[in-house]
Specification:
449 residues; Porin; mainly beta
Length: 449
């Protein structure tokens, strides 16, 4: 009982917490992305991530970019399981600082670059009000005891969980302009993954009316009650338990790209990221549930990616762009969980930027993320939903060297309802997953000529 609950909690942190990207991958890597979304043909400093071959169009000299996002997400679960105390639950994921840092040096046809950012994970999870799978572990206790001839009508449990997941990437690359229209890039990213889990289940209570043990039918300790009536195995299942464990590992992502700029109006960028093989090692401080094994390893790869972007400047001051990104989630090794991915994830984005004045630009963007998974993949703890996101913001040029980017994005998710059958009770019920997500971003870019 306890082990299954905490395994579910841990699975939650192995999925992406931001709103853009594949099932595991984060694609929101700059403030320009939040205000515009389509960055596949970028020739700004954030091209280090989105279009490395486009860096050859930076001005000669050193260019720096520093960005941060604050992301809030509420997971809303509706569950019709008849034995639960309630049918609606919420879980919160909050990322106060989601940082990105970029630096590029351009001279002639050559550009050298470094980048840093959370390429997967990046948040902490908190479940103050619980979730259906938390309570469902204990909701059958009253019915079980009543069938044994001990009238019982209620249960309670204190379940606490704090967890974090972060996959930081340090990226380096070389970009070279073969001629005025065509450039190429090659590089790689070193990914450092870290997951941490601290959880506890305590104070499981029930209200059995038992003539010797609890004649008043008051709420009492479930473990104490089952021990008293001679059921130590059941008592062990509902006794207090704690977990404190960490997982860590690293891997390398190969990255290549090309950029085509036939004239001053059009630009085309392509980026390929190879698969990142990540083997995580487990370190256990405390585990009273048997969830983790100290020294155990498992795979949680970041899949390969294709991204193609096109930008067009029809008139002075106006830039239109579109980007398509394909995530090969089905190929990644997620210890078998990838078998529940029906189709690879894709993302389509469009954006527009217009300089209202020579120093102030306004922008708007839209992105559609399409995710296709089967019933086995989805749960209240770890689920992924297709979504539509709208972003807006702007850019302010303080002078010819220093610029501020700012943006806000809001995501509308497509609710997903799945039919379930509880194996223990045989009850059929439905579970509906939904989310609410917003993101605020700001950043500075500076060119030292």
């Amino acid at each position: 009982m306890k082990r299954g609950l905490l395994i579910g909690l841990c699975a939650l942190l192995l999925v992406q917490v931001a709103f853009a990207g594949g099932i595991l991958t984060n694609s929101n890597q700059s403030a320009q992305f939040i205000r515009m979304f389509s960055r596949g043909a970028s020739t700004d400093i954030d091209a280090i991530y989105y279009n490395p071959a486009g860096l050859v169009h930076l001005p000669d000299g050193l260019t720096l970019g520093l960005y941060s996002q604050t992301i809030s997400q509420t997971k809303i679960i509706e569950n019709t399981y008849p034995l639960l105390n309630r049918n609606e639950f919420e879980g919160d994921v909050f990322v106060p600082v989601f940082p990105n840092a970029y630096v590029a040096y351009k001279t002639g046809n050559l550009a050298l670059s470094l980048g840093f950012g959370p390429n997967a994970g990046g948040g902490s999870a908190s479940f103050g009000s619980g979730l259906p799978s938390f309570e469902q572990q204990f909701s059958g206790l009253p019915a079980m005891l009543s069938q044994m001839g001990v009238p019982t009508t209620a249960y309670n449990a204190d379940i606490e969980f704090d967890g974090s997941s972060i996959y930081y990437g340090v990226q380096a690359g070389v970009s070279y302009a073969i001629n005025e229209a065509f450039s190429v890039s090659v590089g790689g990213r070193y990914v450092i993954a870290s997951n941490s889990y601290e959880g506890s289940i305590s104070n499981v209570q029930i209200n059995p009316t038992h003539p010797q043990v609890n004649p008043t039918g008051a709420m009492i300790s479930a473990a104490q009650f089952f021990n008293t009536i001679g059921q130590p195995e059941t008592a062990a299942m509902v006794d207090d338990a704690k977990v404190d464990a960490k997982e860590s590992g690293s891997g390398i992502t190969p990255i290549v790209g090309f950029n085509i700029r036939p004239n001053d109006q059009w630009n085309i960028g392509f980026r390929y990221e190879g698969p990142t093989e990540l083997e995580l090692d487990t370190e256990v401080e405390v585990d009273e549930t048997g969830t983790f094994t100290d020294g155990e390893t498992f795979r949680n790869d970041i899949p390969r990616i294709y991204a193609l972007g096109v930008s067009y400047a029809p008139i002075s001051g106006l830039t239109l762009s579109t980007t398509g990104t394909y995530y090969f989630d089905k190929e990644a090794d997620w210890e078998g969980r990838q078998e529940s991915v029906k189709d690879d994830t894709w993302e389509a984005a469009a954006g527009a930027q217009y300089f209202i004045t020579p120093s102030l630009a306004a922008s708007v963007g839209y992105t559609r993320t399409e995710i296709s998974v089967d019933d086995a993949f989805q749960s209240d703890l770890a689920h992924n939903l297709s979504s539509d996101t709208i972003g807006l913001g702007g850019k302010f040029l303080l002078n010819s060297q220093l610029a501020i980017d700012f943006g806000f994005a809001y995501t509308i998710y497509a609710p997903d309802t799945r039919d379930r059958v509880d194996a223990a009770s045989g009850f059929a019920y439905t579970e509906t997953y939904d989310r609410d997500n917003w993101d605020v971003a700001i950043g500075l870019s500076y060119t030292l000529k």
